[in-house]
């Protein structure tokens, strides 16, 4: 900044004309210094606007001076000066001048930071680029770095839309397909371009794209990178790609941009670009960048990165070990898991390149033969041997080996087996036997060989565990898996020694600090063995029969030992291992599928006695003596000389103690469900024991870390129903504290969702939902308060309400309801929580176009990739869509049986609640707009009512009819009107005896009904559907329909007339079919024919013709059939999409089918039987009521001319009654043909409007156009305008009507002039105004909209010398009006005077 300031101050001295012989001055010329131009380019892209202006000033000054002096940069530059950024030669003076003029225009325009101003100038960038491409003299006159400054400036814009515009322009830059330009731009792409791509908002959906579409910019990015890399010189591609990957790990990238950049990499054409350093860079991206992202997006990005690595890795530069070390960083639960397309692609890729990998030098291998190649199978065999090769045990305690080694080897084993089966088709068992023989040998000796090193046994168990875990395919793909079956059969032969070894180790041998994590390994292996044996009939030994009782008895003996005054490591570790062992046994037994043997049951009885012992405290409160017991931090023997053990004690003992406490609750939770407290205490003490247990659970919520409380919540789930009547206060305390804990986890996605589901199962279980306010007033009030908080939390965290709704819907109406009486009892609880159902029907927050909405859109896009993205199979499906609550409750309602009294009662209560909500919004004084929250709530309510209508009883519908008809008279948005009209049609079809109430709607005062009568006329358009259901008097009903339609045909409102003519056309066609009673319609024939002829005559009357054609082709009156198209697809997807509702209100049918409890058959069709309606696109005719303040129909593009001087003028002033031309002649004034249009002025103040009015009147404008003439009635306007409105013709043209108004004026010969700074705007002092000029003024902030800019004949700008580059719209208008007056009226007057003289 200081350098630019100094250069600007000294510019008069440094940049001045030089005489041809002044060599000294030439040497001081900054134009010859590359550093000067580097400073200028840095200044042009500086964050400070003043610095940018200074740099641009210096550039313009240099260009002007170079042309003036005839400067020749070639002859003035020494050979060692380096690359010249600014070049000038006299022979190319004209194109150089034009280039720099365009360049400065572009840079100046970018200062505006407004898209509508900048977009027209973008073609000048293309001109600059083309000039640079076409230049072929020497090394080129235009250095590409100047173009980079333009993009850099756009990328740094504060306006995100302008930033996006710059990115899109660069992505479509065709010149980058030329190798020279691609190489010149490469570092810019690596640096600035990658930096701007990290902006999440760039990847929002473009207008016209649907939810689930790939963002437009992401598609362009894929095409751009392919063409860019193809254009780069082949020797540069690897280096550039490596730098791009490094950019991904150089800073934290948000999930969305990282995902689409990785996807773009995966589309690059296969070529050997990445060496070992490239794989290391990709590994760094996996390690650092993705740790905090959403799981699904993180998994998808991993999939794309792996695909990129497979297509871009130079296998001749990496070894097999390098590749498997790289694959180790892809998580099996997120991306790389067996059974997916990605896994199969990897197997094929490894097979194809198996003999192409770089040879690795093994330890002790002194041969250096580059032709020696290592197969995958040989690699795996060597790695298994090396993995199990461990040094002899020293006898000292040691940490558990790093599990990543086992993870890497297990994945390599599984890939090798799948490769061999795919390639050779051999016996899987034989392949596994040859690969796993060292491991199987170790496992067979693990119990008998007491001299086996602990490290070797640990590593063998780690590998066993990872093989069983990684070999399992994701849920939904558990078909015949020959590999997994062979693995299990192989390991089943070695279950006995492994089990005996684990039992021996758990029962007394684990006493060191490092043994705590070792115990976790043993218990994990034991779990896998139990699951494996339970699914196999060939299990040689029943683990449950021998292992479980032994573990429980030994663990209880350790826990019952008296506490030591000074805790030692061995004692505390033994207790931690014992409690973990009992918890593992309880979890395995709770999973089911394992029969309970007598000795196991006896051991569990002893465990139950241990936990359920009552202990009375000094406060006379009972508690369970052996629950919430904590471990004491031990002291190390020998003064803590073992630094590693000391470090473990300091860092991990808190987690060990927390796990010890959690394991107690896992045990107690299982025991209270399976054994029961009553078996361990006297019957009289059961209530007291239960209360003590609940008190302990409340205490545990405060003791445990938030991520370990799930067992406590599960325990409360069992206990609360038993205590709610006797100890309600304690139950409320437990529920409230649990909810506060869950709320505190809302920022921790990993722990929040499991805790939330656990809380829902506990607090909203059916036994608590059944409680009425009279039975448990405090608890029910607390639950209502929690539900209110829940709704509030759901506004900021997607998916929260969906968790509750899924649980409640499955509770009230399970897929397997059991007995009828039991189902009725469970369902009855819904009436206590009708507010949950009601809120779910209208739920769906109005989302901003922010990052949260963008992430949801991208998640849907990833989900719709299906099997193409392995993350969809690897990541557990967890729907967190904001539409989930509605899809759940709508599916729930569609499953209700109308013959069931409880179901019928629920539907009726819900209908009344929804009608009440709709009525409250309709009667509120707040006017609601399209897609506002009020509009959406009304639309959702009527959608639900329409869904329930066929299930409602006739008696209840009779009480509902009047409310439906009254809703038709309210001011409604188009989508709501369609639903109300559809509901009226269905009611009249099913219950035609209500037709008289319908006819009475046409008898209301027309001044009160206004255009809402169109709602009822729309129903008559579908009268052909209603008439066949009328039992008798069909002709009479048709005659009555014609009577009310004909009355509306003569309504003063054009919109009403248009609807009436359409209804008349439809109904009259029905009347003509009634040939047996011609007399009934004979008198009407001439009138109807005249009306229809008038409608057809509209074909030649401009705008009215267009609207007549549009309304006839509208979906509601054309393709739509109220009976045939009645389905959930029409109500919730097709209607919203055709009635201009935001796309986040569209619920496609697949979202219903995706629900786990979606029934195979519905009482209401899910999809349309006919596809015609779903194939339509939203039209431009929108049926909508108009408010009293907006009496102009949106289709009516007609200007209103008034003569304000005739309103309230005394008879003593006859000159005010004259038209403007007569007044001007009488008063000696002259009027030009300048028409000033000010309809675009946003929020017009009285000062601006009155000032414009005075200016136009003073300078003789032919008229002033305003957006509304209501301004004239304002007292402040009248005081400031000093009666100018009485002497000036005023017109009212609303902004929506401007397009048509300008077209009309163009046809009348007006030149449309805009006051705007554009790329081709003319200076005010140079422009000659035509006589018939229309001056269009923009609004204060945005100027003239882009759609109107295209209609301008010319843009005029006012020369400015200041910094802020902004004038008030009134001042700008006054300057142009004066210039027009100077050129025409004053010049004309002087000519007349000279002729008279």
From TrEMBL:
Pfam families: SpoU_methylase, TARBP1
InterPro entries named among the record's database cross-references: Alpha/beta_knot_MTases, ARM-type_fold, SpoU_MeTrfase, TARBP1, TARBP1_dom, TRM3/TARBP1, Trm3/TARBP1_C, tRNA_m1G_MTases_N
Positions in coiled-coil regions: none
The protein's Enzyme Commission number: 2.1.1.34
PROSITE patterns, sorted: SAM_MT_TRMH_2
Keywords per UniProt: Acetylation, Methyltransferase, RNA-binding, S-adenosyl-L-methionine, Transferase
Catalytic EC class: transferase
GO terms classed as biological process: tRNA methylation
Keyword Repeat: no
Catalytic activity, reaction form: guanosine(18) in tRNA + S-adenosyl-L-methionine = 2'-O-methylguanosine(18) in tRNA + S-adenosyl-L-homocysteine + H(+)
Limits of the tRNA/rRNA methyltransferase SpoU type domain: 1234-1377
Molecular function GO labels: RNA binding; tRNA (guanine(18)-2'-O)-methyltransferase activity
Superkingdom field: Eukaryota
Record-annotated TARBP1 domain positions: 43-137
Assembly description: Monomer and homodimer.
Biological role stated in the UniProt entry: S-adenosyl-L-methionine-dependent 2'-O-ribose methyltransferase that catalyzes the formation of 2'-O-methylguanosine at position 18 (Gm18) in a subset of tRNA. Selectively mediates Gm18 methylation of tRNAGln-TTG/CTG and tRNASer-TGA/GCT. Gm18 modification can enhance the stability of modified tRNAs.
Stated family: Belongs to the class IV-like SAM-binding methyltransferase superfamily. RNA methyltransferase TrmH family.
Protein name, entry field: tRNA (guanosine(18)-2'-O)-methyltransferase TARBP1
